[in-house]
Design a protein that fits this description.
Length: 236
């Protein structure tokens, strides 16, 4: 039996004009070893660098002790907090969304082309492993806003899979003045969909999707509105 690796996944949500909401799904490149070609939520394995002193010093909104308590005391405080920072790193690497704030607590504004291009250049450097996540945070004077990342679900890959993950699922809202990349090095394409619509498409050819993604979608499809979603999960 393969021992599962620690992982974090995030359901990114945004409100619709009709008072409903949509979630971001990304399609993994077909050549990827795990779930290649499938639609998933952004995420991946928790790396040791995700809870390095350099990264943890640039976290706000959640203490390591509280993170450990929320995850049931199964991890060290640092590793528990690393599940949250892994969400922020993976979301940035895969679709370019930055769940960070400035020293004064303000959201980062990516509406200006110069800022957006600079951040994108650093994202690509991170993917090429030329820049560490902690180095990116320091270079931009940013802090991970852990208060935006809400934990809500836990799943372990079944034993018969050759690659297994012990995955924590989180939910977070799309920040203002930011847009998810349509594609990247780890994403064939990304798409915003209402949960119920995504579930309907699981029966179509060319829309491969598996549990636990469908399990999460099924739960969210039962939420009637954006306001109900905010109230249930404390999404800001």
């Amino acid at each position: 039996m393969v021992r599962p690796r620690h992982a974090s996944t995030v359901v990114l949500v945004r409100p619709d004009a009709d008072g409903d909401f949509a979630v971001l799904l990304t399609r993994r490149p077909a050549q990827m070893r795990f779930l290649g070609g499938y639609y998933v939520f952004p995420g991946g394995a928790v790396h040791q660098d995700d809870y390095s002193p350099q990264v943890l010093e640039r976290c706000r909104g959640l203490s390591a002790k509280e993170a450990q308590r929320i995850l049931g005391g199964r991890h060290t405080e640092k590793l528990a907090l690393g599940h949250w920072t892994a969400v922020i790193r993976e979301l940035f690497e895969e679709v370019g969304i930055v769940l960070c704030v400035t020293d004064s607590g303000e959201e980062i504004d990516l509406s200006a082309a110069a800022t957006r291009n600079r951040i994108e250049s650093k994202r690509r450097a991170m993917v090429r492993e030329e820049l560490a996540f902690g180095g990116f945070l320091e270079s931009e004077a940013l802090y991970c806003d852990l208060s935006r990342v809400i934990y809500f679900f836990h799943r372990v890959t079944p034993e018969f899979y050759p690659m297994r993950f012990d995955t924590r699922f989180y939910i977070a809202s799309l920040p203002s003045f930011q847009t998810a990349l349509e594609s990247s090095e780890e994403v064939t394409h990304s798409i915003w969909m209402k949960p119920a619509e995504a579930l309907e498409r699981t029966y179509e050819h060319g829309f491969p999707i598996l549990p636990p993604t469908t399990t999460v979608l099924d739960d969210l499809a039962r939420v009637a509105s954006w306001e109900e979603l905010r109230a249930r999960y404390r999404v800001s």
